[in-house]
């Protein structure tokens, strides 16, 4: 448990509810956008429902929550940091990941534009781009030993990421230790993108 932290449960696709909940909770100095869905379908079988849900959560929710928080930071004159959790899939095509890869690529570019526009307000924006992380979602999509072996064989460090690997990278990007870092993507991929 973390004293002083009050969780808000809200449907991120409901912009009105998000505006009310997040708007009433501020002001903020730090923001981590971590919500995501991975509805894996072959390109020729992508459904409108899966596309819309992925766009709403992986991209639209980040844009909207970041707008609310950044406006509060600017109004209060608070310098801040925003970290958007992206993926190695933003940089490399993966089978059955047409929508996921595309939304994460869009998130990377959104983060760069945010960094450009929010920098003059002393708000830094970066992404962390992990490989498969052993969360519930990671276990669901990568539980097939054949599928996971193919991916792990492409990671020079020979393993998927644990939650703490990503958390520690996020903490670095939120901290003053990264005071001159904005518009960057920190790969937490065990070397996947260099293989």
| Coarse shape | globular
Order of helices and strands: HEHEHEHHHE
The main sheet orders its strands as: 1-2-3-4
CATH superfamily: NAD(P)-binding Rossmann-like Domain
CATH architecture: 3-Layer(aba) Sandwich
Quickly count the helices.
6
CATH topology (fold) name: Rossmann fold
The strand count comes to: 4
In the predicted model, the low-confidence regions spanning at least 5 consecutive residues are none
Task: Give the amount of beta strand, in percent.
Answer: 5-15%
Any idea how many domains?
1
Rg calculated over all Cα atoms = 17 Å
Measured between the Cα atoms of the first and last residue, the distance is 39 Å
Which range best describes the helical content: under 10%, 10-25%, 25-40%, 40-55%, 55-70% or over 70%? 40-55%
Structural class: alpha/beta
Query: So what's the CATH class?
Result: Alpha Beta
If you average the pLDDT, what whole number results? 94
The largest β sheet comes out as: 4 strands, parallel
């Amino acid at each position: 448990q973390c004293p002083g932290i009050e969780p808000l449960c809200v449907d991120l696709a409901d912009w009105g509810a998000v505006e009310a909940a997040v708007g009433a909770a501020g002001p903020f100095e730090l923001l981590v956008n971590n919500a995501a869905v991975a509805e894996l379908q072959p390109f020729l079988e992508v459904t409108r429902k899966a596309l819309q849900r992925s766009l709403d959560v992986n991209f639209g929710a980040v844009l909207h929550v970041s707008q609310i928080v950044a406006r509060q930071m600017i109004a209060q004159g608070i310098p801040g940091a925003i970290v958007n959790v992206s993926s190695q899939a933003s940089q490399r095509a993966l089978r059955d990941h047409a929508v996921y890869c595309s939304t994460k690529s869009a998130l990377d570019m959104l983060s760069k534009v945010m960094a450009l526009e929010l920098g003059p307000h002393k708000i830094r924006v970066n992404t962390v781009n992990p490989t498969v992380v052993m969360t519930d979602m990671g276990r669901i999509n990568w539980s097939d030993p054949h599928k996971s072996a193919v991916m792990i064989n492409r990671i020079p460090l020979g393993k998927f990421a644990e939650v703490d690997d990503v958390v520690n990278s996020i903490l670095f990007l939120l901290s003053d230790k990264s005071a001159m870092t904005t518009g960057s993507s920190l790969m937490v991929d065990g070397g996947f993108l260099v293989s």
